[in-house]
Design brief:
458 residues; four-stranded antiparallel sheet; two-stranded antiparallel sheet
Length: 458
């Protein structure tokens, strides 16, 4: 009863057997009962079921948390997110098309371009920060697994020593099972009991704890992050629980999301520059005139809107010329044509599929390498699919978490029905023992009274 609220405590039962009777020539006298030993009530199959579901619950809980952080980074739909920022950027080009060469409109285009740049930079930096924090967590969990494995190995040794006489050591076994439960949650380990009473712990397909020996895990750096045993170059396969999900997140989800943002940034830089470098402004002509090909005649200012050397989401930036002077922003494709707005219209049209189809036709084979979108896919479509993918995966992780949380709770209830302490049952047993004790005292009292009567007669 005192241990009923202790987590991981297994109720214990005294194994009672009939004591050897005292024999006399004409008869035998019973001597009561002996305690053969104390055993704990535990079912290994229920333990295995619970640990399996607890590992899955820990895994999807971690995955749900990590994907939730990516959702917070992207933060869509919102008026300050990249989707809205891109819309404002394309709108600014449409406004410039209505007022070609207007200084105020050119300044707004530059400002909207900076907002696109800052938003993509912020997304990339925050995702990189999430990746770095997750790597730190992986190192911490690996250290925790090593500590728990060492404790399990030490308890294996203590259990073997304590049970050398054939009696169980329930408290030591409970402590060892609590460690196994923790390892199942954070690393998805599998437990197998050995014939000598020790616990074998498997991480993936490899043995982590064997009798009194525990192998040491380490984080292995490389093209992808992995976890392996110290001194072994091969990573451990099939890691589950929280640790397995963090490794998968770093190797799969982070690169996928960051890769789509990088593709978007590269497409924006190269797509906008494709049109803008062919445009004309008085200020732009002065900067780009030296780049004209005399044989082909004037070929535009050759001034890029974005810096062509920085095409990643974390590095995208405006060109030095645009940063220094908004007057170099082109709106037309005709030299000395102040009312021409062809370039501004073409860039503003990149908001939709038709504009992207025109860009693909203009770039030809270069479109696949410099932009890389599907045919007719706009920038908004590409970013929208990125948001959708993250949202669907996060929703799936939450759904899986709900399911495995229910299964783990049911498995825990089944296990507790065998190993847990029932206060009602224990109180009933106490009453039974109390009644037995009271009956025994009555017998002793009656014998004592009879003996006293005999003595008094003598």
């Amino acid at each position: 009863i005192a241990n009923a609220e202790i987590e991981g405590y297994s109720r214990q039962r005294a194994e009672l057997v009939t004591a050897a009777p005292q024999r006399f020539p004409q008869y035998s006298v019973g001597t009561g009962v002996d305690v053969r030993g104390v055993t704990r009530m535990r079912d290994q199959l229920l333990d295995a079921s619970y640990r399996r579901e607890a590992g899955s619950r820990g895994a999807y809980n971690m995955r749900s948390d990590l994907l939730g952080e990516i959702e917070q980074v992207i933060g869509e739909p919102t008026e300050t997110g990249l989707g809205s920022t891109l819309d404002q950027f394309w709108n600014s080009w449409s406004d410039l098309a209505n007022n070609p060469g207007n200084a105020a409109a050119q300044s707004v285009v530059r400002q909207r371009g900076q907002q696109v740049m800052y938003t993509l930079n912020s997304y990339a930096n925050r995702i990189d920060d999430l990746a770095n924090r997750t790597r730190t967590r992986v190192s911490g969990v690996v250290s925790e697994v090593n500590a728990l494995a060492s404790q399990a190995a030490a308890l294996n040794k203590q259990v073997t020593s304590a049970e050398v006489t054939g009696q169980q050591a329930p408290d030591l076994r409970d402590a060892r099972d609590r460690i196994a439960d923790q390892l199942a949650k954070i690393a998805g380990v599998r437990v197998e009991m050995q014939h000598d009473g020790t616990m074998g712990v498997y991480l993936g397909t490899m043995m982590l704890v064997d009798s009194s020996n525990a192998r040491t895990l380490e984080v292995q750096a490389g093209a992808t992050l992995s976890v392996g045993f110290a001194g072994d170059p091969d990573p451990v396969m099939g890691i589950g629980g929280e640790l397995g999900q963090m490794v998968d997140f770093l190797n799969t989800d982070i690169p996928a999301t960051r890769g789509r943002l990088d593709t978007l940034a590269r497409g924006i830089v190269n797509g906008v520059n494709e049109y803008h470098a062919a445009g004309w402004t008085a200020a732009g002509d002065a900067l780009g005139g030296a780049n004209w090909v005399p044989a082909n005649g004037p070929t535009g200012s050759r001034v890029n809107f974005f810096d062509a050397n920085f095409t990643g989401a974390g590095t995208i930036r405006l060109s030095a010329e645009v940063t220094a002077n908004a007057a170099v922003i082109a709106s037309g494709d005709v030299q000395n044509g102040p009312g021409n707005n062809t370039i501004a219209l073409a860039i503003g049209a990149l908001r939709d599929d038709a504009g992207m189809a025109a860009l693909q036709a203009r770039m030809g084979a270069n479109f696949a390498t410099q932009v890389g979108f599907a045919a007719g896919e706009s920038y908004g479509d590409h970013f929208g699919l990125t948001v959708t993918n993250v949202g669907v995966q996060a929703a799936d992780a939450k759904s899986q978490l709900t399911m495995h949380d229910t299964l783990a709770t049911q498995a825990e209830n089944r296990r507790s029905s065998v190993a847990g302490v029932s206060i009602d049952e224990e109180l009933a047993l106490m009453l039974r023992h109390q009644q037995a004790y009271a009956a025994a005292t009555r017998i002793v009292k009656a014998v004592d009274e009879m003996a006293q009567a005999v003595l008094n007669m003598v």
